[in-house]
Amino acid sequence: MAITSSLGIGSGMDINAIVSQLVQVEGQPAYGSIERKESAANDRLSALGRLKSSLSDFRTATGKLNELGSFSAHKVSSANEDVLTATADLGAATGSYSMEVQQLAEAHKLTSKGYSGYSDIVGSGALTLSVGGNDFSVTLDATNNTLQGVRDAINQAGDNTGVNASIINVDDGVGGTVSKLVLTSKETGTANNISITAVEDPAVPGLSSLVYDPAGTGVTNLTEQNEAQDAKVFVDGQLATRSSNSIDDIIQGVTLDLKTAEIGGVFNLDVTLDEESIKEVAEGFVSAYNGLMSIVKDLGKFDAEGEGSGALIGDSTLRNVQTQIRQAVSDTVSSATTDYDSLATIGITMDRDGVMSLNSTDFSNALKSNINAVSDVFSSRDGVAARLDTRLDQYLNSGGTFDLQTKSLNKQLSKLSDERDTVALRLDNLERTLMKQFIAMDVTVGRFQSTGAYLASQLANL
Question: What is the SS3 string spanning the chain?
Fold first, then answer.
């Protein structure tokens, strides 16, 4: 508040300083209490944030173990990737295979005669299209009997069994351009041949030009642009015929992607266990666990002097995190189907101080002995990673422990801020009251001094 420079002129006292000190003394206990509570709340928020961040990092590492793909780490090497590439999953059969791609799978493609343009009328009636013996029909009338209408009717048919229709504009051979309807099977392989029959409307004929039924009526008014064929692959000298160029049932756990055919081009495909990749994921888990437990220890440590004690010493949340995580990684896996039923059995152990480590030799032996069993230890129904995922969710998910505690602490800080405002308002009112009282006192003292000076002057004159 504004205070004139004449204050204290009557009494000679520094009223501003006196009032300021009185107000400060009055507010010190209240502000001190608020600051201690704010400091405690902020310290706890910071500690919980640190713990939550470490738990999030641990869940990331755990999630990699919980994904079956982490244990699908097989290296597949094709000696001719221009012809064939491959990937492998968990059940891949390691070995070296002789490969030869003699033929790629192709889709059936038919082309119509040339029309003058998209709006040229093809004919009215009904077309029945069959792909691999599965039929669907489209009805064509004055609303959709143009070349574009036929294309759209086929593509938009709700029961379309696998035919894609398009229009191409090409040379007619005599200097002009014509539009042709192209019908292509959506799937490759001889099982997906297209056949077409028509029932014409006598009033608007022309649909018979789209008939292609070599196995039935023998009519083939469409041109076979591309013959449907299966892929043919020789694996170790044995022929395998498939309808697709992506094949996952020839070599166990391996998906072959055929790129081009090369008759007589024999090359090797090697499938080996990518042990280093799996070990890297496991070591990441071990490191994340030790990092988490180091932070738990730091937040809960006790210092006899009090100055170095952890921010969450004696906290129940911290104790629960430590207990539940340790239990999840230590217990045996009930869903395991072999003697590999815990982290310890696959070479991941903890010392007396709770520090986790991975024994490379033991872990490698377990992988080579039974990689599926190692995967079960982590990602089966009761696996370590699955158990940890459940426990971590209760802490980290929205509405979980950390979310609720953070909201509670922020609410507490907001309330303390309101209390600070209330104290400030009370002190402002106190300052105004004290200033009024001291001003009144100062004026009174000034009057007394003025009267005294007058009387002293009069007495001196006598």
Answer: CCCCCCCCCCCCCCHHHHHHHHHHHHHHHHHHHHHHHHHHHHHHHHHHHHHHHHHHHHHHHHHHHHCHHHHCCEEEEECCCCCEEEEECCCCCCEEEEEEEEECCECCEEECCCECCCCCECCCEEEEEEECCEEEEEEECCCCCEHHHHHHHHHCCCCCCCEEEEEEEEECCCCCEEEEEEEEECCCCHHHCEEEEEEEECCECCHHHHCEECCCCCEECCEEEECCECEEEEECCEEEEECCCEECCCCCCEEEEECCCCCCCCEEEEEEECHHHHHHHHHHHHHHHHHHHHHHHHHHCCCCCCCCCCCCCCCHHHHHHHHHHHHHHHCCCCCCCCCCCCCHHHCEEECCCCCEEECHHHHHHHHHHCHHHHHHHHHCCCCHHHHHHHHHHHHHCCCCHHHHHHHHHHHHHHHHHHHHHHHHHHHHHHHHHHHHHHHHHHHHHHHHHHHHHHHHHHHHHC
